[in-house]
Each structure stands twice: as structure tokens, then as C-alpha cells.
Design brief:
Its main location: membrane. The chain has about 475 residues and is mostly helical. The chain has a two-stranded antiparallel sheet with strand order 1-2. About 0% of the residues have low confidence. It is about 75% helix and about 0% strand. It is built from 21 helices and two strands. The chain has one domain. Strand 1 and strand 2 form a beta hairpin.
Length: about 475
């Protein structure tokens, strides 16, 4: 079983190398799909193993899959598959002399995210997160326009600052363990309540590490790289970054929190994450009201959802199953929306909301899935985001964070109104004079990944076994149990 842990790492790396070989142009465009499939299959096998009581590990314990890691690797694979498969038409339209490096970077990006969630060492996890910065910087600038290159540099600078702060925090956490019998960066060892870690160093290290990873998660006030990067990257890359890169950074925060809670209690990071979450919701609400670009609209939506997830993390164990379900639902829906936005951009030729009108009449093959996915992302039932948000709200009230929850609800109402207005502007109403009806949308790209993503998010919240069991086991891991 331990060999399965290598598949999400070696598989994408091998495919990345294959894409760079001469004479592979016919198969090159499927490298991202193949790499995502390898990660997803490995994740599902690991989920089956942990549900049967196993905890696979290899590499001398450096790679390890508990319930949380197995769940996250499955999310990486599932969201990656939707983004790369659904984005085949977008990728194909950008076939240039850099196509090989594009596909190789997608595969490397998936390998780096897989390593981040499978690593038992905080240091190795940090290195993997830094590797995602390197890979995605080139992907953000893939179009080689002035705006995309500016967005890539902004992402590199702010992302590097964030991971540098996180590295400093990890250094403090290691220093806290030096005074014990087992100096270590292992999650497994640091999560033991009797290790005797220094509280002052854990406080400083936890705060810095969470601040650094919050930058990668797109939480305010360290969010400014996200709208530019997500709006300028190719659609599949935007889907991957929004759908799983932000969640992998949140995963790192969860692991750090599980250590700090054992040593100094939950209140310190609860305050920090609550403030970051509310600021993220405020930023999203204020900028969505007058948003003019539909890809940037989706980027600010990511800030909103990561903010609410951060509030869920702040609440603690009562909200964590909802947060983890949120990670999957948001990832699948946001990947779907970015894929559809790429198709809209391809046929409309503009990202400006005011220039896209009456899609439901003119291009129903795009408008219908767009409307369904928008209903899912703003929290309509039966989609899983609705149940995740309700779970977080109820958990917040139960632990005495009524003020935080009340403020979040007000901001969510503003965001809902903004999304509704912008979506109506794009999809409803009569077409402009002289603009005809275009009935054939078969060239827009594969529909099956979009159907699968929407169907999964509409049903997963009702699957108590094995999904509910897995979420509870993952929550127990974060509580210090194995």
C-alpha cells in the first residue's frame, strides 16, 4: 500500500518529462488530464485504506496518508481533472511553441500540491508549497501579455513573501521542539500532547506560519495577488489555483492550528483567523458590487469563500467537517466556473461583463451550466456549499461566536446581491440588435466534466457513507487523534 503514496508524485513528474520529449505533440494536450487522473486514483485508493484503519507511509515516514491527507489528495485529483479535462479546448487554442512547457508545468503543479498534503514534515510541506509558486508563476504569465506578466511578477513577489514568513514560523516551531527529547518537524510527533513544546515559541511560530500560508490562501489583507493572477491565467490554471491551490494552503493552516491548539489553546488563532476571514468577506463584498470583469468576479468569489472557510477553521472541531466538505464543493464548482468563463471568453472575445449580454438566448449551451454553477457557488441547495455554509454558521453560534457569524451573514448577503446582479446582466434579457442566435455549441469543449462536477456537488452532501465517515475521521486527525 505504501507504493500508492508515490503515484501522485512520480506519475505527474513522469508525464511532465514525457510532454517535453519531441514527437509527442499529439498526446501532449492530455498530459494534465492523465496527471490529474493518476492523483485522483491514488487518492481514492488511499481513502479506501484509511477507512479500513490503515495509515500508509513510506520514505522513512516522510510521506504519510492519514484521513485528512487521503481526503485532500482526492480533492486535488478531482478538481484537477475537472479543470484540465474541461479546459482541453482552452489549452488546445493556445498551442504555441511553449505548449510543451505549459503541460509540463501543469503536471509539476499537481505533483507539488500532492507532496504538500502527503508530507509528514512541515519543512517538506513548505518546500512543496514553494514549488507550487514557481510552477504557477510561469502558468499565470503563459499568455505573455503585459498584464499577464505583471500579474505573474506580483504573484511571485507576494507569494514569496508569504512563504518566507511561513518559513520563519516553521523555524520557531522547530526551535520549540529542540528543548524536548525529540527535535522534529513531523506532524505526527508535534501533534502529541505530551511532547512539552515551548509555548512562547509555538505562539510566535504558529502566528507567523499561519500568516504566511494565509497569503497563499488568498486571505485579506494579503490577497492582492489573487484577482490579477486568477484573471490573467489560462482558464484551466485559474480553476486549479482557485480550486485547490488555495485549499492546500488552508490545509497547511489546519495542520499548524492542530499543533498550536495543543500547546496554547484555540483562542489565539481563533481571533487571528476570524479577523482574516471577516476582512476577506469585506474585501470581496466591496469589490464585487462594482465589478466589471467576470474572471475577476470569480477571483473575488474565491477570496469570499476562503474567508468563510477561515472562519470555520477559527470555530474549531464543530465546524471542521463542514469546512472540509466546503473545500471539495468550492473546488469543483470554481474549476467549473473558470472552465466555462474560458469558453465564454473564447466566443465573446471579451472579459468585460457589460459587453456580454443575453447569453441565455444567444448561447444557451454556455449560459445554462453557467447559471447552474453560479447558483451553486452562491449557496443554493442542494449543492454542497449550502450545507457547508449552514454547518459553519450553526457551529459558530454554538461556540459563542455570534458576533462574527452575524457580521459574516451581512457581508454574504451583499455578495449574494452583487453576484445575482452581475449574473443577470450577462445571461438574461434580449440580445442586442443584429446579434443572432447561435444554436451549435459542440465546439466549446467537453461537457461531461462539467456535468460530473455539478452532479457531484449536488449529491455529495447526502452521502453519509463513506463521505461523512471520512470527514469525521479527518476532523479527528486535526484534534490530535490518529
Amino acid at each position: 500500500m505504501s507504493l500508492i503514496l508515490w503515484i501522485p508524485l512520480v506519475g505527474p513528474l513522469a508525464l511532465a518529462g514525457l510532454s517535453l520529449l519531441p514527437g509527442t505533440s499529439a498526446l501532449r494536450r492530455f498530459v494534465g488530464v492523465a496527471a490529474s487522473s493518476a492523483v485522483l486514483i491514488a487518492g481514492l485508493v488511499l481513502v479506501s485504506a484509511v477507512l479500513n484503519g490503515a495509515v500508509p507511509e513510506t520514505g522513512g515516514g516522510m510521506l504519510r496518508a492519514d484521513a485528512l491527507s487521503a481526503y485532500m489528495i482526492s480533492v486535488v485529483g478531482a478538481v484537477g481533472l475537472i479543470a484540465t479535462w474541461g479546459g482541453l479546448s482552452s489549452a488546445a487554442s493556445s498551442r504555441t511553441k511553449v505548449a510543451a512547457s505549459y503541460e509540463a508545468l501543469i503536471a509539476l503543479f499537481l505533483a507539488a500540491m500532492s507532496l504538500a498534503v502527503l508530507a509528514d514534515s512541515i519543512g517538506l510541506m513548505w518546500a512543496a508549497v514553494e514549488a507550487t509558486t514557481i510552477a504557477t508563476a510561469f502558468l499565470v504569465g503563459h499568455h505573455r501579455t503585459g498584464r499577464s506578466l505583471e500579474a505573474a511578477w506580483k504573484y511571485v513577489i507576494l507569494g514569496s513573501v508569504g512563504v518566507a514568513i511561513a518559513l520563519l514560523g516553521i523555524g520557531f516551531i522547530y526551535a520549540a521542539s529542540v528543548g524536548t527529547d525529540t527535535p522534529t518537524l513531523s506532524w505526527l510527533l508535534l501533534s502529541q500532547s505530551n511532547l512539552g513544546l515551548d509555548p512562547a515559541l509555538i505562539t510566535a511560530g504558529g502566528a507567523l506560519a499561519v500568516l504566511g500560508f494565509a497569503t497563499k490562501a488568498g486571505l485579506a489583507p494579503m490577497h492582492s495577488w489573487l484577482p490579477d493572477a486568477h484573471s490573467q491565467a489560462p482558464a484551466p490554471v485559474s480553476g486549479l489555483m482557485s480550486g485547490v491551490l488555495l485549499s492546500v494552503a488552508l490545509y497547511a493552516i489546519l495542520r499548524i492550528q492542530s499543533i498550536t491548539n495543543l500547546v496554547i489553546g484555540p483562542e489565539f488563532l481563533r481571533i487571528m483567523l476570524s479577523i482574516g476571514g471577516l476582512l476577506s468577506l469585506l474585501v470581496a463584498a466591496s469589490l464585487l458590487i462594482r465589478q466589471r470583469d467576470y474572471k475577476r468576479m470569480l477571483a473575488y468569489s474565491s477570496i469570499e469563500h476562503m474567508g468563510l472557510m477561515a472562519i470555520g477553521v477559527a470555530i474549531g472541531p464543530a465546524a471542521l467537517p463542514s469546512v472540509l466538505l466546503y473545500v471539495l464543493g468550492h473546488g469543483l464548482i470554481k474549476a467549473t466556473l473558470f472552465v466555462i468563463s474560458g469558453r465564454i471568453l473564447k466566443v465573446e472575445g471579451t472579459p468585460v461583463i457589460a459587453d456580454v449580454r443575453a447569453l441565455l438566448v444567444r448561447r444557451p449551451g454556455l449560459a445554462v451550466p453557467w447559471l447552474i454553477a453560479m447558483a451553486a457557488i452562491v449557496g443554493f441547495p442542494p449543492f454542497s456549499i449550502f450545507f457547508s455554509e449552514v454547518g459553519i454558521i450553526m457551529a459558530g453560534w454554538s461556540v459563542g461566536l455570534g458576533g462574527v457569524i452575524g457580521a459574516a451573514l451581512v457581508l454574504l448577503l451583499v455578495i449574494f446581491a452583487a453576484f445575482t446582479r452581475l449574473t443577470v446582466q450577462m445571461t438574461l434579457g434580449p440580445p442586442a440588435e443584429g446579434v443572432g442566435f447561435t444554436p451549435d455549441y459542440s465546439a466549446h469543449g467537453p461537457r461531461l466534466p462539467i456535468i460530473l462536477a455539478l452532479a457531484t456537488t449536488a449529491t455529495v452532501a447526502f452521502v453519509a457513507e463513506p463521505v461523512g465517515t471520512l470527514l469525521l475521521q479527518a476532523t479527528a486527525v486535526l484534534g490530535g487523534s490518529n
